[in-house]
């Protein structure tokens, strides 16, 4: 049963992508239905695979019937099945969101005839990476998902997206080349790329060779997973993409890198040679990432930095090299995929509602759209790790595993993790208190003028523009100004714009992240499909808390399998002698 | 069959040149650098297959004389991937050229803006620290009425009457 189903998570999206491309833009409705159906099927298959893998243990098929060490092997164990289920879930949620957005926008921003096939190819690549039983197939999986992600990130080809996309593409290319070179060296040293076979053969190599191969693989995967100091590309490239694209990138792509790190550290190099280095990297990732988030004023950038920061938790769990640490890391990966995707979808809704994602330009969203406020608040608290939610359970598991380890470095990381959690709460609640809670009239709107000033050069910067509607006006006047009816305020503002025009010989430009006329715009009602899919994702993240017990059980069994290594190896070789 | 020194030397030179080109701001050079790195890696894979031998075709050569065919299969796959991505990067370069008439990586405005913000948040700026003309309207210490502001502006930018300046309001910044 498991053998029949194993190739489907890769095959179905690929075939679906071909069909969606053929249907093309002429029948957008058929295309949408098709891709939603395909992803639903993938989700179903993944759930069945998880149930089977959890009941019967790992299994593998060799594609095309080649004998095992030669052919392409797809392996399902508890970890890969669990990752598949989560990936398919968030992919489906994001796709429905994108369908809603496409329908609402008239497909101007996201040419949907390209979006759907590319999205499906991306999911095929993610699934292939999770199932890959040899290093080269893992590389192919990475390349499939990366190529699809290049297209998705530069969708529409606007100047901002091309600029962000170029950074992303070049960094990804470099990591791919590094990975491929590592594969070449691994093959030269051992004569195989099959991971189950490598598990035995790598241990026989001289220590120096092992260390070189391990560090090359880890560097390549750390770039993809955005582990500090290889994380600078992420907050630079993610925020400009369309909301659903950013959401699925944030949720899935970095976690594929984390998954690859888990396999490297458990299956290929279980000796723990680089665990210390990984711990320092985890600490730096957590702390530097979250400090970046605190400094930002754009919701999407804040979320991107928290994404980087929380990768540190997972690397921490992996580097502990204990069953408890790995279980915590796996649980945290599952939690974080769901939560980060949801938050980016909410940021997309905020942008639609408020006309911007800059927290300095937003205000009063809690009164304007209470539902949106709830949709933000629940996953935000979850991300920060407030007790009833799954974020708390995951962090608690990791911190307990760190304390159980007993060394001084894990204890430092436990402290770093706690501080990071608090700073996450700070960054997240700043967004809440500014974008959602304060009256709209208090939003200073200073950012765009600052930007114009900064663009003009250091000598001419006139300082931030005080907002005419702000500060010490009687309440009724403030309200009037907020509605754009305060004529005096408008006149002053116009004078100020002329002033900055003179002072900087330029005029304020929008920065491509959003329009700066957010407050003047009438509130558009949010498209129902987008809200419904986001709400469904929020329900999923809350649901993770409800099923946390069984989920943690699966994570612990998966971690035990990973530490043991024999389930994986014997699944590939079917109990035969490993050649 | 003796191991050859030519292959490692070529691989090394290709890697060096590729890294050098990759560090350039011009995207075309970056692409060329990527191609060199890709070729270097393919050669690395090839040399990972061990000493050279006859083509691995059954009936053409004895199995002992054949070269290892697996790296060759890997290289073919890698070449296809490199080819596809190079085409995509070329398209991006063309698009970038169409958009801004240049194909270099631009400075990230957001980074510069963050770097410029010494006073972190607009909320945290004390109006008393600002010059009178920069203070918000109706601020308690803003004795400067509109006409005073006008006067100080006129001092700062003599010759330009601030209210009469007629600049096109939405003129885009020249790149």
Describe this structure in words.
Chain A: Residues 454-498 are annotated as: Disordered. The complex is a heterodimer of chains A (579) and B (175). Chain A is 74% helix and 2% strand. Chain A contains 24 helices and two strands. Chain A has helices at residues 2-5, 8-23, 28-56, 78-105, 112-131, 135-153, 159-190, 195-201, 207-225, 233-237, 243-268, 275-295, 299-320, 323-354, 365-368, 370-384, 390-405, 408-437, 446-456, 475-482, 487-504, 528-546, 548-564, 566-573, and strands at residues 59-63, 72-76. Chain A has a two-stranded antiparallel sheet. The longest helix of chain A has 32 residues, at 159-190. Chain A is globular, with a radius of gyration of 25 Å. In chain B, helix 1 runs antiparallel to helix 2 (27-48). The interface between A and B is large, with 72 and 68 residues.
From the 3D coordinates, which CATH architecture of one domain in chain B would you assign? Orthogonal Bundle
Oligomer designation? heterodimer
The shape of chain B is rod-shaped
CATH fold category name of one domain in chain B = Helix Hairpins
Q: Unreliable runs of chain B, pLDDT <50, ≥5 residues?
A: 162-175
| DSSP, total strands of chain B | 0
Which two protein chains have the largest interface (Cβ within 8 Å of the partner's Cβ), and how many residues from each? A-B, 72 and 68 residues
Largest sheet, strands/sense/barrel of chain B: none
The SSE order of chain B reads HHHHH
Helix content of chain A: over 70%
The chain-level mean pLDDT of chain B equals: 73
Task: State the helicity of chain B in percent bands.
Answer: 40-55%
CATH class categorisation of one domain in chain B: Mainly Alpha
- By secondary-structure content and strand pairing, the structural class of chain A works out as mainly alpha
In whole angstroms, the N-to-C terminal distance of chain A is 27 Å
Tally of alpha and pi helices of chain B: 5
Placed side by side, the strands forming the largest sheet of chain A appear as: 1-2
Mean pLDDT score of chain A, rounded? 79
Order of helices and strands of chain A: HHHEEHHHHHHHHHHHHHHHHHHHHH
Shape of chain A: globular
């Amino acid at each position: 049963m498991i053998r029949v189903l194993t190739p489907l998570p890769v095959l179905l999206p690929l075939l679906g992508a071909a069909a969606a491309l053929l249907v093309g833009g002429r029948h957008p409705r058929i295309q949408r239905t098709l891709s939603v159906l395909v992803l639903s099927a993938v989700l179903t298959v993944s759930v069945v695979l998880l149930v089977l893998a959890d009941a019967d243990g790992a299994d593998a098929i060799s594609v095309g019937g080649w004998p095992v060490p030669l052919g392409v092997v797809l392996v399902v164990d508890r970890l890969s099945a669990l990752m598949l289920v989560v990936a398919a879930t968030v992919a489906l949620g994001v796709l429905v969101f994108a369908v809603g957005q496409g329908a609402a926008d008239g497909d101007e921003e996201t040419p949907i005839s390209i979006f759907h096939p590319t999205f499906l190819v991306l999911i095929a690549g993610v699934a292939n990476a999770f199932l890959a039983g040899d290093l080269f197939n893992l590389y192919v999986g990475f390349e499939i998902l990366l190529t699809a992600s290049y297209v998705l990130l530069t969708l529409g080809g606007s100047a901002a997206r091309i600029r962000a996309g170029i950074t992303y593409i070049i960094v990804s290319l470099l990591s791919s080349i590094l990975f491929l070179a590592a594969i070449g060296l691994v093959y030269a040293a051992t004569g195989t790329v099959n991971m189950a076979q490598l598990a035995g053969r790598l241990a026989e190599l001289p220590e120096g060779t092992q260390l070189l191969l391990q560090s090359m693989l880890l560097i390549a995967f750390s770039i993809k997973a955005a582990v500090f100091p290889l994380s600078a590309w992420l907050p630079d490239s993610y925020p400009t993409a369309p909301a659903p694209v950013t959401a699925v990138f944030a949720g899935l792509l970095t976690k594929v890198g984390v998954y690859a790190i888990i396999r490297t550290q458990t299956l290929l190099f279980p000796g723990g040679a680089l665990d210390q280095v990984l711990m320092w990297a985890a600490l730096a990732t957590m702390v530097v990432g979250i400090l970046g988030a605190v400094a930002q004023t754009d919701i999407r950038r804040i979320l991107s930095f928290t994404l980087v920061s929380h990768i540190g938790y997972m690397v921490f769990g992996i580097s502990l090299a204990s069953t408890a640490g790995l279980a915590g890391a796996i649980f945290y990966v599952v939690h974080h995929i769901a939560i980060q995707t949801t938050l980016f979808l909410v940021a997309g809704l905020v942008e639609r509602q408020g006309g911007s994602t800059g927290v300095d330009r937003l205000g009063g969203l809690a009164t304007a759209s209470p539902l949106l406020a709830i949709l933000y608040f629940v996953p935000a608290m979850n991300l920060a790790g407030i007790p009833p939610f799954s974020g708390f359970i995951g962090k608690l598991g990791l911190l307990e595993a760190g304390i159980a380890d007993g060394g001084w470095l894990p204890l430092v990381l436990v402290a770093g993790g706690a501080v990071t959690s608090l700073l996450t709460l700070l960054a997240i609640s700043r967004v809440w208190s500014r974008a959602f809670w304060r009256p709209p009239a208090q939003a200073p709107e200073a950012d765009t003028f600052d930007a114009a000033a900064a663009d003009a050069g250091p000598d001419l910067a006139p300082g931030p523009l005080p907002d005419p509607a702000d500060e010490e006006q009687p309440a009724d006047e403030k309200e009037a100004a907020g509605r754009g009816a305060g004529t005096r305020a408008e006149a002053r503002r116009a004078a100020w714009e002329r002033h900055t025009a003179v002072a900087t010989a330029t005029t304020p430009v929008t920065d491509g992240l959003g329009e700066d006329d957010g407050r003047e715009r009438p509130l558009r009602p949010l498209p129902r499909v987008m809200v419904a899919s986001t709400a469904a994702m929020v329900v999923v993240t809350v649901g993770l808390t409800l099923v946390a017990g069984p989920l943690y059980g699966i994570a612990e069994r998966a971690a035990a399998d990973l530490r043991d290594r024999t389930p994986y190896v014997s699944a590939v070789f079917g109990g035969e002698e490993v050649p | 069959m003796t191991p050859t020194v030519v292959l490692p030397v070529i691989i090394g030179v290709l890697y060096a040149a590729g890294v050098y080109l990759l560090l350039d701001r011009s995207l075309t050079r970056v692409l060329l650098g990527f191609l060199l790195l890709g070729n270097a890696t393919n050669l690395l894979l090839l040399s990972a297959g061990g000493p050279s031998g006859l083509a691995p075709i059954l009936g053409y050569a004895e199995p002992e004389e054949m070269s290892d065919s697996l790296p060759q299969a890997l290289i073919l796959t890698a070449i296809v991937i490199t080819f596809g991505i190079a085409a995509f990067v070329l398209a991006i370069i063309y698009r970038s050229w169409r958009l801004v008439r240049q194909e270099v990586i631009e400075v990230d405005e957001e980074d510069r803006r963050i770097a410029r913000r010494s006073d972190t948040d607009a909320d945290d700026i004390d109006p008393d620290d600002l010059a009178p003309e920069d203070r918000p309207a109706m601020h308690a210490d803003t004795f400067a009425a509109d006409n005073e502001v006008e006067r100080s502006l006129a001092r700062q930018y003599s010759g330009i009457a601030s209210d009469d300046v007629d600049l096109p309001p939405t003129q885009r910044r020249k790149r």
